[in-house]
Design goal:
By secondary structure, the chain is an alpha+beta fold. The chain is built from four helices and 15 strands. A hairpin with a 3-residue loop joins β8 and β9. This is Peptidase M23.
Length: 348
């Protein structure tokens, strides 16, 4: 093998003096009986071989640098993608938490809407009660609801449920706005009517003149307890105890006080709209002629003076000079109720 190489270099040295643009012949002399290998290479290829090697090295270096750069960019993109993915995961978790919170708040809002509906119903009932109290016509009251207990199986909420709930809640609040506006107008009107009604009731003998509401003798024809004959009773007799307070049935002015054989100690009050009330058989007179009195003021005490069989109040209502039954007026009473009136005969 070394011999063959020596020959190669000898040939190379001999060929070095050959003019350019010729060929070089390379001999490979293997050991043994193998044939000689001959290679002819043009001088241009030999001259370009270093350039080719340099180009290959440059290309390899460039490819390596590009690969290294691409790998670095890939690592940066991977790192950035990982960071972005973590950020998105965190934001998604926060958004899911926010959505859950909004769902809970929407559920609470829906409950509040139902609560407001109940309060509006209560206000409607209150308006009806106020009208009933002062004797105004009232609308039919809605059935009262009993919301003392809750329960049921827990079922996880779905998106469709939330959408329906939001829609229903929006509809409730929208209708509540109109209902509350209408209720406000009706309450203003009811307040004005109630004030007028109360003013009318104050000047009308609607206030029970005694604490007792036990009627012992009615208005109209009756058997006189003294003569035993039929006679006209121009008022009602209300039983009581001697010394019990007697109240003015309405706002007005004391027009007369005094003592008469049949009336005993008495007080007469003049009211608006041509009405007059009379209070007989008093044990004491606590008002004076000319005094202005308000409904409910004490004007005397129950007694049995005059033509009387025992302690009671004889109460009369006179309209335009004619005695009328006091009971229709007293049935409108704010304090007391005709349902509590007890009847017992025997007093005058």
């Amino acid at each position: 093998m070394n011999h063959s190489l020596n020959i190669f270099w000898e040939v190379d040295m001999r060929k070095s003096v050959v003019p350019r643009n010729k060929h070089f012949t390379f001999l490979v002399l293997p050991d043994g009986a193998r044939p000689v290998l001959r290679f002819r290479v043009h001088t241009f290829i030999l001259a370009m071989l270093p350039v080719i090697i340099v180009l290959l090295i440059a290309i390899a270096s460039t490819l390596y640098l590009l690969h290294d750069r691409a790998r670095g960019q890939l690592d940066q993109l991977h790192s950035k993608l990982t960071s972005t993915n973590e950020a998105y995961t965190s934001q998604l978790a926060k958004k899911e938490g926010t959505i859950k919170q909004l769902q809970n708040e929407l559920a609470e809002l829906a409950q509040q809407a139902e609560s407001v509906e109940l309060r509006v119903e209560e206000l409607n009932k209150l308006e009806s009660d106020v009208k009933s109290l002062v004797g105004l016509p009232k609308e039919t009251a809605a059935a009262e609801s009993d919301d003392t207990g809750v329960g049921g199986e827990f079922v996880a909420v779905q998106d469709a449920d939330i959408v329906d709930l939001a829609h229903d809640t929006g509809m409730i609040f929208s209708s509540l706005g109109d209902e509350i506006s209408d209720l406000r107008d009706r309450l203003d009107s009811t307040k004005e009517q109630a004030q007028k009604r109360l003013q009318t009731l104050r000047v009308t003998p609607t206030y029970w003149p005694t604490q007792s509401q036990r009627i012992t003798s009615f208005f109209g024809v009756r058997m006189d307890p003294f003569s035993g004959e039929a006679g006209v009773h121009k008022g009602i007799d209300i039983a009581g105890h001697r010394g019990d307070s007697v109240y003015a049935a309405a706002d007005g002015q004391i027009s007369d006080t005094g003592t008469m054989s049949e009336r005993g100690n008495y007080v007469t009050i003049t009211h608006a709209m041509g009405l007059t009330t009379r209070y007989f058989h008093l044990s004491k007179i606590l008002a004076h002629t000319g005094d202005r009195v308000q409904q409910g003021d004490i004007i005397g005490e129950i007694g049995s003076t005059g033509r009387s069989t025992g302690p009671h109040l004889h109460f009369e209502v006179v309209k335009h000079g004619v005695s009328v039954d006091p009971r229709p007026y007293l049935k409108m009473a704010i304090k007391g109720s005709s349902a509590n009136v007890q009847v017992e005969k025997g007093q005058d």
